[in-house]
């Protein structure tokens, strides 16, 4: 089977994906979740003209010449408006957030006044509107401030609260079942045999799924035996997974059984093997409405393909807009060689000069088993198929790796 391009693989993977359904979630549990519908303000904020400072509500015209003495006729703390009007030569003690009393048009801050009983002396003038927040300064009722597909965070949740939405309509978190495969693998914390290693991909992929707004479901490690793999696939189906991610066993070795067993479990193959490094044995398909993504076993291939393919798939299920993978260009710190037919994703560090200019430095060694290098990397340099060698200083496309 010929290798297909990364673009072709992405369009086959994402073509026809519809967002998952929605659910109603209390504001307090909505952090990191995705809005399923546009969110409009149910109220105007502030709902009234309000003081932005502690001081005195006055008529600007009364204090154009200073010192000017005014009569104190009441008080307006936040939450308790002064309900009468202010006449000429009068003032009201006011605090930050309180409604501006009728008749007043500016705030004399307390630092610019002295008080003696009911006599307030303005020491400085204040133009009309000074320290007054007009009604609707922040937003107005009916304004759509957050749109469907937005990920909620500390700022957006505060805004949703201010718009008076105690519950939100959010996308259900897509359920992503994760299955590691291979006789050589044991769980972290277990004692590996002399020819075994610790499985790591499932831990990384689960974290990526969570960061993307999905719900990971660990299926554990399947031995390289058909019946064991088939059982785990059935488990993913029974759990109602939206996506089954398999890790390893995707290549061409005698023990790479995953694709066979998936086919026997009813998988319709979308594609297998792509022109990408790392990530050549990537596979995608579906078993009815469960999407299957077969990530290569090499740890860096697994995680890089997770970023390149699993993340956009979860984004699409969440109704989020697609992201470009080559939108940013940074100059190279050193010469790099040419490329073969596979699109290369080189782990690289971003270096910042004293003047703030950023440049990108690919690591010398790019073996796809080297997780420590991946962890030291800030970004991936994207090298198109058949790219020519490039000298230092040439701008190249970079994909910043998602940070926690
Ligand atoms: N003759 C060929 N051999 C290989 C080819 C090829 O085209 N022809 N492709 C190579 C490429 S590229 C990759 S990538 C690997 C990936 O193959 P698999 O997806 O079948 O992965 P495995 O063989 O199961 O494992 C590869 C490697 O990764 C380790 N591994 C597997 N799972 C995990 C895990 N969950 N956590 C940590 N490490 C894991 C495994 O022990 C192996 O060392 O195939 C090349 N071979
Ligand atoms: O995905 Mo493989 O890592 O290209 O070695």
TrEMBL record:
GO terms for cellular component: cytosol. GO terms for molecular function: metal ion binding; molybdopterin molybdotransferase activity. One of its GO terms (biological process) is Mo-molybdopterin cofactor biosynthetic process. Gene3D superfamilies: MoaB/Mog-like domain, MoeA, C-terminal, domain IV, Molybdopterin biosynthesis moea protein, domain 2, Molybdopterin biosynthesis moea protein, domain 3. It is an enzyme of class 2 (transferase). Its EC number is 2.10.1.1. Keywords: Magnesium, Metal-binding, Molybdenum, Molybdenum cofactor biosynthesis, Transferase. It catalyses: adenylyl-molybdopterin + molybdate = Mo-molybdopterin + AMP + H(+). It holds the Pfam family MoCF_biosynth. InterPro entries: MoaB/Mog-like_dom_sf, MoaB/Mog_dom, MoeA-like, MoeA_C_domain_IV, MoeA_C_domain_IV_sf, MoeA_linker/N, MoeA_linker/N_sf. Signal peptide: none annotated. Pathway: Cofactor biosynthesis; molybdopterin biosynthesis. Its cofactor is Mg(2+). Residues 177-316 form the MoaB/Mog domain. Catalyzes the insertion of molybdate into adenylated molybdopterin with the concomitant release of AMP. Belongs to the MoeA family. This is Molybdopterin molybdenumtransferase. It comes from Stappia indica.
